[in-house]
Design brief:
With about 375 residues, the protein is of the alpha/beta class. The chain folds into two domains: about 240 residues, Aspartate Aminotransferase, domain 2, CATH 3.40.640.10; about 130 residues, Aspartate Aminotransferase, domain 1 (Alpha-Beta Complex). It is built from 14 helices and twelve strands. The strands form three sheets. The chain has a seven-stranded mixed beta sheet, sandwiched between helices. Helix 6 links the parallel strand 4 and strand 5. Bound molecules: pyridoxal-5'-phosphate. The site of pyridoxal-5'-phosphate has 14 residues, from helix 3 and helix 4.
Length: about 375
């Protein structure tokens, strides 16, 4: 058994980030400045999109996206029952009602037929999540959205590298929202980004992200001379710091390398687990690129002879940190009690949430680490 604990989702931080971070520190320019502008530029180029606004989390990105689309109190936004709570909280804080749709059990992504059933005259937007890095069925979603005049926001927290029919995800709907949280595919510690091809919408996002100041207020972070700034709406404090962008600029340069490393781990797991009594991820759909953010298996007690909870403890006792992504939204007390979701409306999301375990898939893992994970699984299930 391994003698050190394998931390789940540990990022790989290299010398270039450390040097860039220290450069900001030495220059005493810690807040929003030229490094944030550079990261926005590089990220937009990477995603082949015209505009990007860096913020301090994907949660902020999602919140501002809902607000910028003029969602009003009582409007409904349809999202998936299988996501991180931040997706749903963003809808709530924008004043809208989160309406949930169940997932497809194979892809774990929102089921388009379930979206269709949930559309009402109050529906204003669909907020999709490209779960674990697998792109949603965007052709069908965009067609449905156009038919009903709905906005589309893409939660790409798992899906920085993902592509759907050769198109980068996050550029298909009105907004794409990204996370650079410590466990995500690239990291700035905390951080997020909104992308769009709509210049006016990104200008609105930038205003909302910085107290509601006019967009040129961002240039007060430069030495272009003194400028008065004016508040045009009551905004938020959601801007990214140069200290964070210092990480992002260099992490982005290694995004392809990290993706290849995770794909290799993914393939190694798929081969190793073929004969085990667990459900492994569904193969990638044609003409899509999976970001391989999470490698999730399902532990069904009837097949494995062990419950998911016991399995998690067994992995822990073998010094391997796992994750659970996620308990389904209707099972959280706040959402259940406030919105009266019925578990029977979301059977696939509920069942998946009770069975799922995420295995380590960070580019930081050595071949020995990956083998330790495989050995532990085989030992527990033997
Ligand atoms: C991580 C995550 C978020 C929130 O990202 P933060 O940058 O931590 O705010 C939102 N949605 C999903 C699906 C996530 O996994």
């Amino acid at each position: 058994m391994r003698n050190t604990f394998l931390v789940f989702g540990q990022p790989l931080i290299e010398q270039a980030e450390i040097d860039e971070f220290l450069d900001s520190v030495r220059k005493s320019w810690l807040g929003t400045g030229e490094k944030v502008a550079q990261f926005e530029h590089d990220f937009a180029a990477y995603k082949k999109v015209n505009y990007a606004a860096a913020v301090n989390s994907c949660t902020a990105a999602l919140h501002l996206s809902c607000l910028a689309l003029d969602i009003h109190r009582g409007d409904e936004i349809i999202t998936t029952a299988m996501t991180f709570c931040a997706t749903v909280n963003a809808i709530i804080h924008a004043g809208a009602v989160p309406v949930l749709a169940d997932i497809k059990p194979e892809t774990l992504n929102i089921d388009v037929e379930e979206i269709r059933k949930k559309i009402t005259p109050k529906t204003k937007a669909i907020l999709v999540v490209h779960f674990a890095g697998r792109p949603c069925n965007m052709d069908a979603i965009m067609q449905l959205a156009r038919q009903h005049h709905l906005y589309v926001i893409e939660d790409c927290a798992h899906a920085i590298e993902s592509e759907y029919h050769q198109q980068p995800v996050g550029t298909i709907g009105d907004f794409g929202c990204f996370s650079f949280y410590a466990t995500k595919n690239i990291t700035t510690g905390e951080g997020g980004m909104v992308i769009s091809n709509n210049e006016a919408l990104i200008a609105r996002i930038k205003t909302l992200a910085l107290h509601g100041l006019t967009q040129d207020a961002w240039s007060r972070f430069s030495d272009a001379g003194y400028k008065h700034y004016f508040v045009v709406e009551a905004g938020f404090k959601y801007n990214m710091m140069d200290l964070q962008a210092a990480f992002g600029i260099h992490q982005l340069k290694r995004i392809k390398l990290y993706h290849e490393k995770r794909q290799h781990i993914w393939n190694t797991y798929q081969t190793a687990f073929k004969t085990l009594p667990i459900t492994t991820p569904y193969p990638d759909e044609p003409h899509t690129k999976n970001a391989y953010h999470l490698y999730t298996i399902r532990i069904d007690k009837n097949l494995c002879g062990i419950s998911r909870e016991d399995f998690l403890n067994e992995m822990q006792s073998r010094n391997i940190g796992c994750g659970v992504h996620y308990v389904a939204i209707p099972q959280h007390p706040y959402y259940r009690d406030t919105y009266h979701y019925l578990e029977s409306d979301y059977p696939h999301a509920i069942k998946y949430g009770l069975e799922t375990i995420s295995l380590p898939i960070s580019p930081k893992l050595s071949d020995e680490d990956v083998q330790d994970v495989i050995d532990a699984l085989q030992d527990i299930l033997k």
